[in-house]
Amino acid sequence: MSVTAAGYLRIEASDTAAWMEFGTSVLGLMEASREDTQGARFLRMDDHPFRFMIEPGDGDRLLAAGLEFRSEADWQAACDALSGAGHTVAPGSSEEAARRCVTAFASVQDPSGNTIELYHGRELDYIPLNSAAGVPGFVTSYQQTGDLGFGHLVLPAPETEATIAFYTDLLGLGITDTLYPPGMEGVQITFMHANNPRQHSLALFNGPHPAGVVHMMVEVGSMDEVGKAMDRVKQAGLPYLATLGRHVNDNMCSFYVLAPGGIAVEYGYDGLLIDWENHVPTVSTEGDLWGHEYHFPGVND
């Protein structure tokens, strides 16, 4: 296994101030005070200098997902494997690496056109979380196994089989579960784990998505924190994408809210942690144990 975790996201926002207000006041993240010549703003959730880079632009979409490698050797091996398979791997400059607070990174597009930034050597600053919303902490590490990443993300993958092979054969992620949601003919979601116990760090949806990401997930340490976040969503007047519910495959108890600009954020608790040496990949035909009534704006208004 090569990829350690989903480390950070770069998000384009047409209104960075609104996104930052959402991130701090609703999600309970902390603004990271960082200077940036390109006008980006940063959100942190743990001892990493940031987990989400919010960059000004004309649209609202995912620009890139940062995937972490445990060592330079693992990182270089992945870059070499990608190049050997015919993918264009673009090394980042030292200035751009410093902007991401990493030792080195390289960019590549998967077969479905998603931009991935592979990196190693994240530079931690150990500043404690100070949440304006009072969130005591987010689930980003586990005992002695180390980093769990910021949470997980689900990417659009219309070139499904080639994209699955890209992540499994070349980047070393393992398939955890394949979901065929009830009532959604033709839909397939492939859940993949990195080299950490989180049930999935990355999942692939077999279709396109205008935001470049189906959803992103952050996890808190108690059900009370999920409930408090729901109160903040209601107070802010933000639209839910899904009501409170519990997923079957990863056990996450969560709700989904739309960020300014329309990117979906899952906010959850109690996600499953797995011993991969004893795990057998599964196939699911049910998505939820209970709840999660979905509402897609403009579709089922």
Overview features:
2,3-Dihydroxybiphenyl 1,2-Dioxygenase, domain 1; globular; eight-stranded mixed sheet; 5 helices; 301 residues; alpha+beta; single chain; ten-stranded mixed sheet
Task: Write a short abstract of this structure.
The chain is α+β, with helices and mostly antiparallel strands and 301 residues long.
Largest sheet: 10 strands, mixed
**Domain tally:** 1
Q: Could you say which structural class the secondary elements and strand pairing correspond to?
A: alpha+beta
Order of helices and strands: EHEEEEHEHEEEEEHEEEEHEEEEE
Average per-residue pLDDT, rounded, comes to 95
Overall description:
The chain is an alpha+beta fold and 301 residues long. It has one domain (3-128, 136-291): 2,3-Dihydroxybiphenyl 1,2-Dioxygenase, domain 1 (Roll), CATH 3.10.180.10. 19% of the residues lie in helices and 35% in strands. The chain is built from 5 helices and 20 strands. The chain has helices at residues 16-26, 72-84, 94-100, 160-170, 223-236, and strands spanning 3-13, 30-32, 41-44, 52-56, 61-69, 90-91, 102-109, 115-122, 141-142, 146-147, 152-156, 174-179, 189-193, 202-205, 215-219, 240-247, 253-258, 264-269, 282-284, 288-291. Strands 19-12-13-14-11-15-18-17-16-20 form a 10-stranded mixed beta sheet. The protein has an 8-stranded mixed beta sheet with strand order 2-3-4-1-5-8-7-6. A hairpin with a 5-residue loop joins strand 7 (102-109) and strand 8 (115-122). It is globular.
